[in-house]
Amino acid sequence: MARYAHITGWGMAIPQKVLTNSELEKMVETSNEWIVSRTGISERRIASETESSASLAVQAALKALEVANVHPLDVDLIIVATSSPEHIFPATACIVQDQIGAKRAGAFDLSAACTGFIFALDLAAATIRSGALNTVLVIGAETLSRFVDWGDRNTCILFGDGAGAFVLQASDQPGGILSGVMRSDGSGAELLTLAAGGSKYPASQSTVQNGMHYIRMNGREVFRFATRVMTQATLEVVQKANLSLQDIQLIIPHQANQRIIETAAKNLNFPLEKIVSNIHRYGNTSTASIPIATCEAIQEGKLKAGDTVVFVGFGAGLTWGAVLAQWSGPLPAKKRVYPHRYRWFARLRSRILRLWRRLEGFFWGKNAA
Ligand code: UT7
Fold first, then answer.
1. 114 is catalytic
2. 87 is catalytic
3. Cα R_g (the chain), whole angstroms
4. What is this structure's pTM?
5. What pLDDT digit, counting tens, does each position of 238-276 carry?
6. How far is the CA of 172 from the centre of ligand 1 (A)?
7. What are the percentages of helix, strand and coil residues in the chain, rounded to 5?
């Protein structure tokens, strides 16, 4: 029997703190007028000291599970696409797994910069269609504000923090994710980087002094690349699903720059009002931008069951890609589940496991050595 991968749940989480353009005017040599006219951004959200990529990811994930009516114990795999992980390792996805109590799930992070959410969606859908897994939680989560050089006006005006999540489930009903495109070109690797902290440039006095732990970007080159690949990937994914652009009700692009979105609309000859944009309020939230824009499109009634939608993104790497889906919504369920309520149990379980590990080490550790 044919299997389909449906998007059955969605959720988003954003920090409360808003950073406006006028506040940025006091931090670097820029102006509200320049930022709005060159990027479309008016404000962005910044994580507080107690927030992190994992904490935002957990909030978004629980909301998505609630919408899908899926219990954390039924999740088979968690993929967190992120460029600002909690640590180099362990994976942010493992922290999410523990905090939501998804004890039967595998968990890993996916690093493809802003395209990460698209790659994760395409992979999750392929895994479900193959029959290997039934339920996958795909999350895009970022706190890029932690890696922004607040003295670099080329980048600090662009980025914001947030997270978004989708639940993907197997069904024999036709629909869901119908095609995907994943592409990369490492010859453009140096156009957008966070160079240090890995094995090539481990943290040192010199990497800190040279600002190598910050995001650096050749904006003009990335802009040119972005406008080209947004068009290419959209056309490719539509063709792969044996459809034409006229069949598409909505495009939800990565939110990097309003001018990139407008250029793509023009190149595709696609009505701008059918391309979702919320960049004015959140800036570029990297892997989180597409799921956040999707949640808001649903809230505003722009995306409804049965609609055909294209998600398209690009980012450092260079990477780019698109996913085409027939929007479905939650699968019919026999009983209601409450993922939020399960969280206290997940916390308790995590504490017991930690305590058990310590006891094990205390009583049996010496013998094992
Ligand atoms: O998720 C993917 C990540 N990144 C992107 O998608 C970014 C893609 N690129 C862009 O969005 C745009 O290239 C930027 C918004 C980053 C820059 O806009 P631009 O229109 O390409 O500006 P530019 O870099 O060509 O710079 C034009 C001028 C320069 O001054 P001069 O040399 O002409 O005197 C810059 O120094 O604007 C100046 N400038 C600024 N002025 C005020 C650059 N940043 C600022 C700023 N405020 N924040």
1. yes
2. no
3. 21
4. 0.96
5. 999 999 999 999 999 999 999 999 999 999 999 999 999
6. 48
7. 45, 20, 35
